[in-house]
Amino acid sequence: MKLRIISVGHKMPDWVQSACTEYTKRMPREMNVEIVEIKPDKRASGKNAEAVQEAEAKRILEAAGRDYLVALDEHGQEVTTLQLADKMRGWMESGRDVSLVIGGADGLHDSLKHKADWLWSLSKLTMPHGMVRVMLSEQLYRGLSVINNHPYHRE
Q1: Contact by Cβ (8 Å): 73, 106
Q2: pLDDT tens-digit profile of 33-63?
Q3: Domain assignment of residue 154, yes or no
Q4: pLDDT of 46
Q5: Predicted pLDDT at 44
Q6: What's 98's domain CATH number?
Q7: Is 127 assigned a ligand-binding role in the annotation?
Q8: 153 lies in some domain
Q9: Sign of the C-alpha dihedral, residues 86, 3, 7, 22?
Q10: Could you read off the pLDDT of 5-37 as tens digits, one per residue?
Q11: Which of 44, 51, 123, 143 is spaced 20 to 30 A from 22 at the CA atom?
Q12: How far apart are CA 16 and CA 95, in angstroms?
């Protein structure tokens, strides 16, 4: 099974890359994590936010293919670590690859949210893009540590 973090944005600061690598390298081969960067669409020539979101959504869906699609959205479902671990167990049992999508500066287009298998909210707060990548990487590792009864997560 492969986990893809599909993220609109590129040229992240070194600390983001370093932190994400720290967590993704801890993941076992059978749950490999790949970070796919989608170049943000520019708001040039009078493009509004919806047009930008729509163009980005098309590229995101191409990158995700037939994966189980998780869209990170502030209006999505908030879960505990144990609930996330249960979700991850389900993903593992299904055998499908999973794409987790982080939107760009304008967020995700409604069409992508409707196609998502799950809308997940890491927080109701607005966070910097790089911070979301790091938090997502850490939470995926934490969820797997719960599944494997590893002492990283403590209740």
Answers
A1: no
A2: 999 999 998 877 678 889 999 999 999 999 9
A3: no
A4: 75
A5: 74
A6: 3.40.1280.10
A7: yes
A8: no
A9: positive
A10: 999 988 899 999 999 999 999 998 888 999 999
A11: 123
A12: 29
Question: Counting beta carbons within 10 angstroms of the beta carbon of residue 33, is it exposed (0 to 12), middle (13 to 18) or buried (19 or more)?
Answer: buried
84 is in an annotated binding site: no
Decide if 152 is inside a domain: no
- How confident is the model over 122-151, as a mean pLDDT? 93
> Does 124 count as an annotated binding residue?
yes
Domain count within the chain: 1
Q: With the CA atoms of 51, 13, 32 and 135 taken in that order, what torsion angle do they form, in degrees rounded to the nearest 10?
A: -80
- Mean pLDDT estimate for the chain: 93
φ and ψ of 77, to 5 deg: -80, 130
Q: Which residues are within 8 A (CB) of 135 and not within 5 positions of it... i.e. 6 or more apart?
A: 122, 127
Structural domain of residue 37, as residue ranges? 2-147
In a domain? residue 83: yes
